[in-house]
Amino acid sequence: MFPSLIGTVVIAGLTGYLSERTGFTHNGILQSIIICIGGAFLFYFVSLMFGISFGPPAMNAILASIGALIIVPTHWRK
Fold it and tell me: pLDDT (tens digit, 9 = 90+) per residue, 2-32?
């Protein structure tokens, strides 16, 4: 469980960094990384509690990070 959690954080951080560098988002590097890690943590614990999964833990981390990047910034923008 612990290596999976650390891997989730690392993959989510990389997803946030790469999404900012490629121009997918315009939040700032640190903000995108924080959003991705938060979304990946949330989905990691939801998948532990309810058994919901998209496949391997790495795929869960990537999809949860992208989902958080799509949902969070557009919710607060006008």
Answer: 888 999 999 999 999 999 999 888 888 999 9
- pTM for this structure? 0.87
Q: Looking at the chain, how many residues does it have?
A: 78
Determine the Cα–Cα distance for residues 9 and 39; give it in Å rounded to an integer: 10
Would you call 36 helix, strand, or coil by DSSP?
Answer: helix
Per-residue CA distances from 33 to 1, 52, 55 (Å): 22, 23, 22
Those residues whose C-beta lies under 8 Å from the C-beta of residue 47, and which sit 6 or more positions away, are: 53, 60
As to burial, measured by CB atoms within 10 angstroms (0-12 exposed, 13-18 middle, 19+ buried), residue 52 is exposed
* H-helix or E-strand spanning residue 50: helix 29-50
